[in-house]
Amino acid sequence: MPTRALRTAASGLYAQQLNVEVISNNIANVNTTGFKKNKAEFQDLMYQEVQINPTQASDALTQAAPSAKIQIGNGVQSSSTQKIFKQGDVVASGNQLDMAIQGDGLFQVRKSDGTIVYTRDGSFKVNSDGKLVTSGGYLLEPEIGLTDNVQSISISRDGTVDVLENDGRTTTLGTIELAKFMNPSGLMALGNNLYAETEASGAPVLGTAGSKGFGEINQGFLESSNVDIVEEMVAMITAQRAYEINSKTVKTVEEMMTMANNLKT
Amino acid sequence: MVNGIYNVARSLNTKVKSIDVLANNLANINSTGFKKQVPFQEYLNKNGEIAVKQTTDYGQGEVILSANPLDLAISGDGYFLVKTENGIELTRNGKFHISDDGFMVNGNGDKVLGSNGEISFGDLMDADNPSISISKTGEIKIGETTLDSLVIAKLENPQEAIRTSSSNFAVADDNYSIASPQNYEIVQGYLEESNVNPILEMQSMIETNKDYESAYKIMRYLDQTMEKSNQIGRVY
Q: Which one of A58, A70, A234 makes the best mutation probe of the B interface by having the most chain B beta carbons within 10 Å?
């Protein structure tokens, strides 16, 4: 019975289901600041050598020649879901604590347990201690602390943070340092727009914004998600059709099995 | 007549195997670097014996943007070399990444081979300008430093390559050679899609299904004929 084809088609259905799950997560995050979309990748499963029946009646019981073997595959599996670190659109937000990076750098953020993680989400706030924090409450690294008598804050493209105080004086509070990775797709996504360094991503290289490859910091802007709805819709149509075509395989095999069952009346 | 029924039975059997091949093509409609298999054919060889031929369609798949620096597609004739547990294999699946110990590997963790052997990013991971660029001929640069260049091979006799998983092909040592750079172009940040065409596969599937049905009908007629012949001379 042709159950191999059924199993193969089932693996195809499962793969496309996973594909749709990844696409729907991308679409759900179409408005998430600094979100980087995922893409599911697939690869074929192992192959098996299968003997083809000899074609003459007299050969029926003899061993077929070795050339009478063919390779039949067993279907598909997902190989990885990878983050695509493409630049998202930079949108003006008017908030002076919002920052967008145009380039490959990431902000460094200190989690409450002391570990450093990385983010592209530049929507910073001020916490009760006057320190710049992410929306999740994690401290920006190196720390930038504001004093009580700050009138306005200006962040230059190289990350220098200057404040204008109530008495009209300008003070430099510090510089925001960016991190860069050789293989950003090797970063581990932690959720909440945060990424952690892994051995595959390489060690972070720290540098000032605006220097080669790090990208400039734009104050008053936010980087929107790099999900393109049209692209995702096309991917969804492709995935749905691929799902459908695998279900056609199931149907065809089912018809063939019915015929086989009806051979003897 | 009994001969006939055996032939039909074999036809039914081979059609089932053809469907297996088509099902695998369709399941891999989104697999990177996948090359579709054509359902096998039977033919008479030089000695007049019946042999089976299975062919792989090595046609170019569509090359689409993926924006990751270690995603590579080959446009033209050529294969990446990867070192697996079972020896060197060839692949068109250019979905590579850096392993935890700093090597350039594919999805199964098999190391990609360059002209100096396995490609290790090792110390260069911490370089000042950690950007990877790969030229059309396969030269890998980290910032300004040249690391290695990819070895691109070509198959001497493509139909003898044996498929393993993840779009890889296992080949005998004398079945591949280094490809000449005029024949291929490596495109960084792109991946080669599967070359399965759903329309052609559906067409083959309908054909196979109908062939199966014909064989089924012939078998039914043969059965009925034999039933009739059994009735000849029946004693009532």
A: A70
- Which residue is closest to A60 within chain B, CA to CA? B6
For B125, nearest residue in chain A (alpha carbons): A202
What is the C-alpha to C-alpha distance for residues A134 and A115, in angstroms, rounded to an integer? Answer: 15
Which among B73, B35, B58 has a CA at the least distance from the CA of B156? B58
The whole-number pLDDT of residue B215 equals 92
Whether the model clears a pTM of 0.95, i.e. scores above it, the answer is no
pLDDT tens string B156-185: 888 888 888 888 888 888 888 888 888 899
What's the CA gap between A256 and A122, in Å, rounded?
Answer: 58
CA distance between the termini of chain B:
26
Which has the higher per-residue pLDDT, B218 or B47?
B218
Q: For residue B235, report the phi and psi dihedrals to the nearest 5 degrees.
A: -90, 120
The predicted model gives A208-213 an average pLDDT of: 82
3-state SS, residue B169: strand
In which residue are the tokens 């083959």 written?
B204
Rounded CA gap, A225 and A56, in Å?
63
Let me know if B74 is exposed, middle or buried by CB neighbors in 10 A (0-12, 13-18, 19+): buried
Query: What does the block give as tokens for A187?
Result: 């970063």
Q: Dihedral, CA atoms, B77, B80, B81, B82, nearest 10 degrees?
A: -150
The Cα of A92 is separated from the nearest Cα of chain B by a number of Å equal to: 25
The predicted model gives B67-76 an average pLDDT of 87
The pLDDT assigned to B102 comes to 81
Judge: B42–A52 Cβ closer than 8 Å, yes or no: yes
Q: What percent of chain A has pLDDT over 70?
A: 93
> For B212, which of A242, A246, A259 is closest by C-beta distance?
A259
- B23 with A42: Cβ contact below 8 A: no
Residue B125 has pLDDT above 80, yes or no: no
